[in-house]
Structures are given as structure tokens and as C-alpha cells.
Write a structure and sequence with these properties.
137 residues; five-stranded antiparallel beta sheet; 5 strands; alpha+beta; 31% strand
Length: 137
């Protein structure tokens, strides 16, 4: 497959903490077969944080989406809860408050080139998609 070709994968995951491990391993395989091994470590961290948020903070199913287009790798997690994610706290502020949780989106913000979220509505389904991007050129 040519290096600049666009592609996208989607993995439906149950509301189960084990889905984080399955998602990380699936992402590693996808990136390896597409020759993006140099992005695996940071991409796994990002996917784990996004999927963990989807699984731990919502009650319904979720999905991991991974795609490459125009030299950008996009990793995202969909969940059925339409509420926006909590804004990430800076690491020093979280440490100052003694928080053990709630650093996931701060990691996403710090380790990705761009991140965001969008509400979704399709055929009566509601939810949100939280995503981040890495330069894959």
C-alpha cells in the first residue's frame, strides 16, 4: 500500500475495562502493517487514554477509530454519552490538587499535535467523538 494512501479502521468495543488492552494491541497491529511503527508508542498511549475515558466514564458501548489521510494519523474514541469531556487540567495543577485520576486528556493534549471532540447524532443515536492527531508524514 502506498505510504500516502488514506485508510480507516473502526473497532467496536464493549463497556469493559479490558477493551483498553484490546484497543492498544489492535492499534499496534494496524500501525505496524501500515509501516508507522515509529508512532506506535505515543499512539498507544493516546488510544488507551481515549478508550479508557469512553469505557470508564460512560455506560454504553464505544468504538476506537484509527485513520490516516493527508499525512495525518487520527485516533478517536466514540461513546454514547453526548456530554462533553471535562477540560484537561495542566499536569502541575492536577498534582497540586493531589488528583490520581483525570490526567488522561492532559496527556492527550500534551502528546498529540491536535485534539478535540464533537457531539454526534445519527438516526436517533447520540454520543460524542473525542479525537487526536499525530503527524504521520
Amino acid at each position: 500500500m502506498p505510504e500516502n494512501e488514506s485508510w480507516e479502521y473502526s473497532l467496536s468495543i464493549p463497556n469493559d475495562p479490558r477493551a483498553v488492552t484490546v484497543s492498544r494491541r489492535t492499534l499496534r497491529l494496524i500501525l505496524t502493517v501500515h509501516g508507522l511503527i515509529r508512532l506506535v508508542d505515543v499512539a498507544e498511549l493516546l488510544a488507551a487514554e481515549l478508550v479508557a475515558n469512553a469505557v470508564l466514564h460512560t455506560k454504553g458501548p464505544a468504538a476506537l477509530r484509527v485513520g490516516r489521510a493527508a499525512g495525518v494519523l487520527r485516533i478517536g474514541a466514540w461513546d454514547a454519552d453526548p456530554r462533553p469531556p471535562e477540560p484537561p487540567l495542566p499536569f502541575d495543577r492536577a498534582a497540586e490538587l493531589g488528583l490520581e485520576e483525570g490526567r488522561g486528556l492532559a496527556l492527550v493534549r500534551a502528546c498529540s499535535d491536535l485534539w478535540g471532540w464533537q457531539p454526534l447524532s445519527r438516526e436517533g443515536s447520540r454520543g460524542k467523538y473525542v479525537w487526536c492527531e499525530l503527524d504521520a508524514a
